[in-house]
Records
---
Amino acid sequence: MKNKFPGHFLSDDAKEKIWKEGIFVFDANILLDMYRYSEETKESLLLAIESIRERAWLPHRAAKEYLDNRIKVILDQGTEYETAISEIEKLKRKLDNKRSHPFISAKTMSQVDTALELATKELEENKKTHNSRITNDEIRDRIAAIFEEAVGEEATKEEIQKTIIEGKTRYENKIPPGYLDSKKQNEESTDTGIERAYGDLIIWKSIIEKALSEESSVIFITGDKKEDWWLKANGKTISPRPELVKEFEDKTGQKFYMYAPESFIQRTLTSKKDRPSQEIIDEIINARKNKEVQNFEEHKLTVQKISYEEHLQNQENVKKQLGQRPRLRDLNTRLYDTNSEIQATESALTALEANLGFLENLNQKNDDSIQNILELKQEIEQLSAQQEQLMQKKASLIHQKWLIMNNKN
């Protein structure tokens, strides 16, 4: 039974063996989240990664996602500083109003002003330091040093297309990983948007290829807690999806396991000097929850935008169809007339072919009958050509009508 379902029977000894011998593979979100952490937490995570750098590896896709999204994450966090400073200014204005509730004594207000000014000054300094990373990024430089010779090869366009084709079937059958990202291709119909929907699967394929080439087990570190990576029950994360463990073992003959960043730090930094505090662990967890809320809100806004755009498009389509009514009436009239001509031509051809058959079956043919046969054949040939032209005309009219009905013209 254990051989049939390895994902359900990974022992503590097996996990320990993977930890001591396996390759550590990092998801892009692990690197991007460093810009969301405090200096202390960011430093702990970098220290943890540096401590296993000899076995650290980054899929090409993860590296690209990190570099493509780094500036956006920096700017997003910069906005958080601006929001905090703005909220402090609002609070100060509210407390400074001496003629309405809430009232506060002048002595206390003086102390509050001093504290708020210190907070604002520190926020401004931290914001400046944070935003400077757009061009002078020490986090990026340390990440680059860790993974200098440890980034995978880029997948070819053909390989990506093959993965997308396979992914469509996997996603339809909810085979992990990545099927919960299928909404991304609905939100962005470009080639890049479609490829984004299969980013997790592209990374998964590269992890398997790495394990095959190195003949090694793999530990995947990711901040993605969705159920297309993790087995969950009653709101609790239990383990990596058993299907992933089994697929990995079936294809590589090696073991696979996963850790969230807080678990990775706790397992890596065990010395008294480096051991992470509970505050660091809580910060990592809270940052992930905040990001999940933000992603949900962004998705909701995107869906609302798509719905509104579809509504506008539907209104535009109705207007177009109303405006095309005269053309449609004209096309319908021409189609009716063309069908009538086709029917008349078919009737005439039937009659001519019957006469031709009668004359050709006569036992004795004189000069007049022979001449009539030649004339009938010529007339049939002309009518057949006319009927072919009418059929082409009908096809063209039907196509024009389809273009108008589907707002293509």
---
Amino acid sequence: MDLAQAPGGQTVEGDFLRASAVSLGADHPTVAAALTPEQAVDANPAYARAAGQRPLLKQLAGMLPARRYALRTEQTYVTWCHRFLLFVGAQDGAGAADLAALGKADVERLLAHLAVDRNVSASTQNQALNALVFLFRHVLERPLDEMAFSRAAAAAAAGGTGQG
């Protein structure tokens, strides 16, 4: 069936549709799927302030597709690692995190900050934790040990009271 010959197809003005179209951002899946991981990091304006962290973020972004992570998971992991580096840099007062000095205590501080100060959900906290575990295990090649940190209130939301 030739849709251009249909009555509705003849009334649509293609120039109007093209002119009113909105450009998709670099983080949109349609556009991001065509970019290399390094291009995706460079194209995201959120990472412009973090020029010193870009090599690490690019390395992280390059490792995720090789391990067959979903595009949105890749984007989320890079974003959480970027937030972590900004958090640690702001906490230390230096502005930029020293990668060699980063460790379990820094991750615990961020996770506690998310739960206590930012009041995020348990699933958001787990997402950040998974991103940081990947960063430390696969990019920095320093796996994190067992951690102790303030958990978001998942038990209360699930109906559990924590009392026996």
---
Amino acid sequence: MSKECNEVACLNYEKATKISPPSQGGAGGGLLFSESNSFDMLNPKRTKRMRQYLRNNMTKWEVMLWSDLKGRKMFGFKVRRQYGIDNYIIDFYCPELKLAIEVDGDVHYFKNKMDLDARKNQRLAQENIKLVRLKNSDLSDDYESIVIYLEDMFKARAHELNKKLKKNSD
């Protein structure tokens, strides 16, 4: 796969895969930076500026979800936004449960993005990170049901990893 440098995506890093801006439903994650043999897996420095950019330019649905995930609202588990794992940036990540949440816009239906997503899925699975993908259209159709679905995912993952649920702060 050829790599192009997008001004926003590169931010003085080595070549990054071309992405759409968040305002067009892209960039919420899945950026692939150049491969490296030596790297810090969690929040690597090479993705820091892009993670900051994505946190400051979240999509409508990312903002709404963040309001329901931040502050340990999901059974006391800390959730981070625009979190770096290896060469990828995840929309939301709960380190304690190794649970990643991606909000996918229309850009995820393009072949090159689907290939990147498949690589991301595979890499996260290698680290025993469970990935939950949410479509913008599903969030738009029934947001409350998606939040309930995520609560169920947090409960199931906690049970799977023998982690205790804390009292929900709502």
---
Amino acid sequence: MDIWSGVGVVLNNSSSTLDSIFQSNGLWSFVNFVFIFLIFLRIVSIIWTAKDIISRTNNTGLQVLSILLVTFLTPFFGLPLYFIVRPVYFKRDLIPWREASALSLVNCSNCRTLNPKEYECCITCGEKLKIVCKQCNKEYPHMYAYCPICGAPNIE
């Protein structure tokens, strides 16, 4: 008698295959659908959390903590806690652009430091913040693509 002869019978009679999940009727099909949906929701929330926290901070400890928080506390408890723990701003935003425009600040083209619009040079690296238009000879911030006075392109 072969030792492995009973293995095929056990595997063929198992009811945990994916086919049996979709072939069941009534309440069990609804329960299976909800179960599959919750698994999908958990996977999607973990992936979204990972992408979101990586775009917000370089702190590896906070990244790992945030992903583990959502992974182990389920999306229903972990995501609200993650929203409390996560940094408010993205890495690319040194200061929110609305606040920067309200404060009349411009980015230095060299070091990306925010400077008041009326300054001629960057307060960090000394780079010129304004250029002179080649058509109307008026000064305007270096970050503008066109002269705000005459509309000439900012080509150097």
